[in-house]
Write a structure and sequence with these properties.
It is built from four helices and 17 strands. By secondary structure, it is an alpha+beta fold. It has a 17-stranded mixed β-sheet that branches. The protein is globular. It starts with a strand and ends with a strand.
């Protein structure tokens, strides 16, 4: 039986999403996520965001990767949906629940800001497979491990353009130190408040941008003493501003609602 499922297409810096509103009765499963993610036979996306009701916030988000697995956080999708919800409500603030808890989002002069919560710095919380120093993981290249709802592995390199992201990202995603796989970032320090980063996302591969990865990289750089806690991060798709404050890691950047459509499948 053919289903007709309304959806929205959004992106933050080219990191693109399909958004489904489950409150209209259309639930997401792994099969649907994989079918819709196909950029040749489906719609195409880096992640799918499913909206549902929340008893403690304006709405709840569940995130799906292109391979049908779920993700605990997706910063750019959160910002995009926050912007959409604020237009609907006629407000400049919104609260959203995810696996990270209650996230605060607000409209600013430079884009939409969302508080992605406090970083998880203990090995068990990232999570990692064994007790190690998350600031210096026992992996060639001396990366940093950080949890932002998703596990992250951040390498600091002299030249991100010279990194074989497809090969190294795929290899590191499945490193045995990360039992839930990991997002992988390669970052170059441009200055004390400026980073250049490229990203491989678990379940999606190379993406033009990643919000949670940007947060993790900013935290890793500050912990290493490479930058201040507020930084500009230039990604392949554009720029995000990250500010690691006492109440959490705030991420600010542009959002885009590209089009609405209906999936028949």
């Amino acid at each position: 039986m053919t289903r007709s499922v309304p959806f929205m297409k959004m992106h933050g810096l080219g990191n693109d999403f399909v958004v489904l509103d489950a409150r209209a009765g259309h639930r997401v499963d792994a099969e649907l996520a994989v079918a819709m993610s196909d950029r040749h036979r489906g719609i195409g996306f880096d992640q799918l965001a499913e909206i549902s009701d929340s008893t403690t916030a304006d709405l709840h988000l569940t995130f799906w990767n292109a391979d049908g697995s779920t993700s605990g956080a997706c910063g750019n999708a959160t910002r995009c949906i926050a912007a959409w919800q604020m237009v609907r409500n006629g407000q400049n603030r919104v609260t959203i629940t995810t696996d990270r808890g209650i996230l605060q989002a607000q409209q600013t002069d430079t884009g939409v800001s969302v508080n992605m919560g406090a970083p998880l710095l203990d090995w068990a919380d990232v999570p990692l497979a064994q007790a190690v120093d998350t600031l210096h993981l026992p992996i060639d290249g001396n990366p940093v491990g950080t949890g932002m709802g998703n596990p992250h592995c951040t390498f600091f390199v002299d030249d991100v353009a010279g990194v074989d992201l497809a090969a190294r990202g795929a290899q590191m995603e499945h490193h045995p130190l990360f039992p839930q796989r990991t997002n992988v970032q390669f970052a170059q320090v441009i200055g004390p408040d400026h980073l250049r980063m490229r990203v491989w996302e678990r379940g999606a591969g190379i993406t033009l941008a990643s919000g949670s990865s940007s947060c993790a990289t900013a935290v890793a750089a500050a912990r290493r003493g490479l930058t201040r806690r507020a930084v500009r991060i230039d990604l392949d798709g554009g720029t995000l501003m990250i500010d690691w404050r006492s109440d959490g890691v705030w991420m600010t950047g542009p959002t885009a609602h590209v089009f609405d459509g209906v999936w028949y499948g």
